[in-house]
Amino acid sequence: QVPLVESGGGLVQAGGSLRLSCAASGRTFSSYGMGWFRQAPGKEREFVAAIRWSVGSTYYADSVKGRFTISGDGPRNAVYLQMNLQKPVEKAVYYCADDIQASSVLEFPADYELWGQGTQVTVVS
Length: 125
Known about the structure:
The protein is mainly beta. The chain is 0% helix and 50% strand. It has no helices and eleven strands. The protein has strands at 5-7, 10-13, 16-23, 33-39, 46-52, 57-60, 68-72, 78-85, 92-99, 114-115, 119-124. Strands 2, 4, 5, 6, 9, 10 and 11 form a seven-stranded mixed sheet that branches. Strands 1-3-8-7 form a four-stranded antiparallel sheet, with no helix packed on it. The model has no long low-confidence stretch (mean pLDDT 94).
């Protein structure tokens, strides 16, 4: 597996913004979709957003819809997550994921094969 390289995490006050980046420059297999998940301490990994490359379709968890925007580059080498962080409960480790097996859905961890190391996002009031 090829690890994804994430960046952009940090501490932000509620109402602020962060932009997460995930690069897959060392990828061996074709990517069919990429997504973002987050995991808070003691919680299960939660779907945040995803993009399907073939048609550029994007998907969002209801909890972040309208505040987060996922996007990617043309060569499918990177995916981004622009976040308007309004809730302290959104403090979590955010993970980038890569679907290299053309999963029919992109809203569950099992739909992805490659994962980044995670980047910490802290939201304070």
